[in-house]
Structures are given as structure tokens and as C-alpha cells.
């Protein structure tokens, strides 16, 4: 198999794995009402069909990436896809809501195994000058899957019932797993450098699970309620213990080369605050469109469609901007667009024409595409040799924790206090402005990304602005050269 064919095969597998996960999340939201009626389940039980998955996947992504670095990413991707298919089949046959919740947690475990591998394999298959295009295509595919999920869910749930949305995962995941048999990647080192530190893994997993569980509970309890304060205290204690353990151990879960990489840590921070702002804004505007204006789910989805369309169409444009202008300028422009989009949504009221919301969502989608492509390309391309899996796991963790944090911030302002419930609508403008402020924090890590862009006729050389470890990449590369 030629290198070009191998790279295309890896891209196909990477896109398929990412789309399976994206589709599963968006389709479920359409299937939950039918599931609730079928089992006679309570609202809290139905919510746990989402929460159990989120807890498992967010807690295990970094550890799963580390396992991929040790045992090989094709193996982790294959196991993840096969397990995801098996869990989906189990959910489709589940006799009760408890089984669905438990199997959704299992699905999250296998989802955690496959996600870092899809990113790490891209790093091994594509040279730096072509990596940005591959990441842009993957981002567009995720946008297509997110947009298609509700439509596909509605088409399946109506005539076939909620179980159909899980049945469809099975052949797609099995086919993707079969394709991975042809994927070849560099063998992981066998010198003991990738030994998994079990105490560190346990501390990190527990801390992330506690964090996500606490954030998910904020809409119900508020930020100052005892369950939230107790959860945040536990997270702080676990994080402190994990940091102390990482300093002492010779094989930390987050390798020191990763923790000290300014582009990698800046990219993950950027993703965290940007996803917080965007998903928090989607939570607020969905509440406004459905609970205040009385739109149904389909009408609401149509009004959000400009966001998805600009995300899909904007990803290739962002890839081109990344090659021409470099990560710093592209990420800064994307962050500013997201801030403007969220701030624009804060001006919505019952009398606003649909074009106002459409324009704000379009700006938001274009900015998010630029941030996603830039941060993902930098994280994947700048991963120190041998640690692409753990870096991919950290990136996906930021993508899972960020939305939970953004929704918690939004819900804490809208759904608690004396104006909760029907009087929450006047609080939506301030909530969106706060989320715009959270998103604006992303300008700080964006300023720490490498500045280099395409410089025809010149190879990379040392940066002149004093940014840590920066180099001017070869034409077309989205990341630094010095990690090579």
C-alpha cells in the first residue's frame, strides 16, 4: 500500500470514528422522549442516559490515550469500535431503563478508547504540511454528523422506535473496525517508557468524574448549594493529590514533555473556554426559542442551522487560513468571531427578526470552526513523539468538560435565584454576555500559539517574538518544527 493510500485509509477511519460518536450524541436527544414513554421512566432517569456516558468518556479519555501510546492506536481504535458496537446492541435490546443507563456508561468507556486514537493516527499518517487539511476535513465531518443527528433520529424514531438509533450504530462501527485491520502505524516503544501509572490514572479518573458530575448537577442545585460546594471541594482535593503524585512519579500520566508544551496547553485551554461559551450559548438560546417563543424542536433546529452550515463550510477555509497566517492569527480571529456571535445572541428578544439570530449563529459557527481546526491541528501536530495518544485524550477531555462548564454557568444564572422559572427570560441577556466574557478568555491562550504561517521559499527558523519554543514552520504546516 502506498503512503498516499495509507494516509487516506487512516483519514477514513478517523472521520468514521469521530462521526459515530458525534451522531450518537445528537441522535439520542431525539430518542429520549420515546425511551421515557416506553419504560415509564422519570426525568432524572432519562437524564442519566446522557450523564452516565459523559462521566465515563470524560473520565477515561486521557488514560485511554496513554494506553494507545503504550499498546498501539490501531488496537485501541479497533477495541473501541467493537465495544461501542456491542454496547449499542445491548442498549437496543435493553429490558429496562437501568440497563440503558449501565450500557450507556459502557458505551462511554469504549468511546473513550476510540477518540484519542482517531487523532493520534492522523499524526502518524500525515506530514505536517498536509495535517491541517486532514484536521479540517475531520472537523467538517463532525459538523455534518451533528447536523444530521436530529434529522436521522427523527426519521428512525418515528416509524421504528428509539431502539433503532442504537441498532444503526452496530453495522457502521463493525465496518469501521474491519477497516482498521488494514491500518498500520509505528510500533510503540517497548522500553518501559510508556508504563501506565495506576495510582495516577485512578486519581485523574476520579477527579474528572467528580468534576463532570458536579457541573452536570449545577442546573438542578445551583452553584452555592451544598452538593455543588462539596463536589468542587472534592475535585480540588483530588486535583491537588494528582498534581503532587505526578511530580513524584517517574512515569506521570501526563508526561512532562506534554505538560511543558506551551502550544499544547494553550490549545487545550482555548478549546475549554470556547466550547464552554458556545455550548452555554446554545443552552440559553434553545431555552429562549422553545420555552419563551414556543418553537418546537424542528423549528428550533432550523434556526440553529446557520451555525452548523458555517462550521462545515468554514473548516476548509480555516485550514487554508492556518497554512497562510499561522495558528496565532487564525485562533485569535476565530475567538473574536465566537465572542461576537455569543454577544450578538444576547440581543435577541421576542420581536427580533429571524435574520438576527441567523447572522449571530453563522458568525458563531465560523469562529468555532477556526478555533477547532487551529487548536486540533496544533495539539495533534505538536504532540511530543510517542505521546500523540495522551495529547489527543487531553484535547477530547477539554471538549467534554468545556460544554458541561458552559451549561453550568448559563444555568446557574438563568435557572436559580428569585427570577428562576418563568422569570428567567430577562436573565438570558446577562447570561449570554457572561458567556461571551468566558469565551473572550480564549484570546489569552490564542496569543501563546505559534505565530508562523506560510513563507514561500523559506524553511522554518527561530521565532523572533520570544514566544516559548516557537519556530516559523515550513509552508503549509500548522505547528512548530522544534518538536521533531
Automatic annotation (TrEMBL):
<feature type="transmembrane region" description="Helical">
    <location>
        <begin position="397"/>
        <end position="416"/>
    </location>
</feature>
<feature type="transmembrane region" description="Helical">
    <location>
        <begin position="266"/>
        <end position="289"/>
    </location>
</feature>
<feature type="transmembrane region" description="Helical">
    <location>
        <begin position="105"/>
        <end position="123"/>
    </location>
</feature>
<protein>
    <submittedName>
        <fullName>MFS transporter</fullName>
    </submittedName>
</protein>
<dbReference type="GO" id="GO:0046677">
    <property type="term" value="P:response to antibiotic"/>
</dbReference>
<feature type="transmembrane region" description="Helical">
    <location>
        <begin position="354"/>
        <end position="376"/>
    </location>
</feature>
<dbReference type="GO" id="GO:0005886">
    <property type="term" value="C:plasma membrane"/>
</dbReference>
<feature type="domain" description="Major facilitator superfamily (MFS) profile">
    <location>
        <begin position="10"/>
        <end position="454"/>
    </location>
</feature>
<keyword id="KW-0472">Membrane</keyword>
<feature type="transmembrane region" description="Helical">
    <location>
        <begin position="79"/>
        <end position="99"/>
    </location>
</feature>
<feature type="transmembrane region" description="Helical">
    <location>
        <begin position="9"/>
        <end position="31"/>
    </location>
</feature>
<dbReference type="GO" id="GO:0022857">
    <property type="term" value="F:transmembrane transporter activity"/>
</dbReference>
<keyword id="KW-0812">Transmembrane</keyword>
<feature type="transmembrane region" description="Helical">
    <location>
        <begin position="228"/>
        <end position="245"/>
    </location>
</feature>
<dbReference type="Pfam" id="PF07690">
    <property type="entry name" value="MFS_1"/>
</dbReference>
<feature type="transmembrane region" description="Helical">
    <location>
        <begin position="135"/>
        <end position="158"/>
    </location>
</feature>
<dbReference type="InterPro" id="IPR036259">
    <property type="entry name" value="MFS_trans_sf"/>
</dbReference>
<dbReference type="InterPro" id="IPR011701">
    <property type="entry name" value="MFS"/>
</dbReference>
<feature type="region of interest" description="Disordered">
    <location>
        <begin position="452"/>
        <end position="484"/>
    </location>
</feature>
<feature type="transmembrane region" description="Helical">
    <location>
        <begin position="301"/>
        <end position="322"/>
    </location>
</feature>
<dbReference type="InterPro" id="IPR020846">
    <property type="entry name" value="MFS_dom"/>
</dbReference>
<feature type="transmembrane region" description="Helical">
    <location>
        <begin position="428"/>
        <end position="449"/>
    </location>
</feature>
<feature type="transmembrane region" description="Helical">
    <location>
        <begin position="196"/>
        <end position="216"/>
    </location>
</feature>
<keyword id="KW-1133">Transmembrane helix</keyword>
<keyword id="KW-0046">Antibiotic resistance</keyword>
<feature type="transmembrane region" description="Helical">
    <location>
        <begin position="164"/>
        <end position="184"/>
    </location>
</feature>
<feature type="transmembrane region" description="Helical">
    <location>
        <begin position="51"/>
        <end position="67"/>
    </location>
</feature>
